[in-house]
Amino acid sequence: MPNQSQQRRQSRRRALQALYQWEMTDGDVRDIDAQFLATQDMSKVDVGYFQELLHAIPATVTEIDAQLQECLDRDVSRLDPIERNVLRIAAHELRARQDIPYRVIINEAVELTKAFGAEQGHKYVNGVLDAVAQRLRASETAAHVGAGR
Fold first, then answer.
1. How confident is the model at residue 149 (pLDDT cuts 50, 70, 90)?
2. Whole-angstrom distance between the N-terminal and C-terminal Cα of the chain?
3. 64, 57 contact by CB (below 8 A)
4. C-alpha span between 14 and 116 (Å, rounded)
5. Distance CA 135, CA 125 (A)
6. pTM over the 0.90 mark
7. In terms of Cα–Cα distance, which of 99, 86, 2 is closest to 47?
8. What is the dihedral of CA 44, 47, 51, 53, to 10 degrees?
């Protein structure tokens, strides 16, 4: 049985796929959720976490995109769809999941981008999320800088 961090990693992978489908098809999140549960191997996935990501991100996408936009060099709509949704997952986690260290969130996003994104997309995602983390988790990021990272 995978441990919690492995299950969450799989949850993020599945959520990225589901959010990509949501964005490309303008589908109903509940239908996509049901489809994934019925057709995908979810045995190694923290299903509750997958569902949190899948439902919370579309529900708050305007706010998430606005926070991302402050740290982007182009409009969020011009980002590669994979990178845009990886950034949305990480921004949600930075905003809503104080139980997950920001460095873990950024690392997971970089790994997702390496697996599914453009060849050098992970470098862009890393830079954007460093800036987002400094805004949303100022005390946590400052503590790491002060400790010499």
1. very low
2. 32
3. yes
4. 12
5. 15
6. yes
7. 2
8. -40
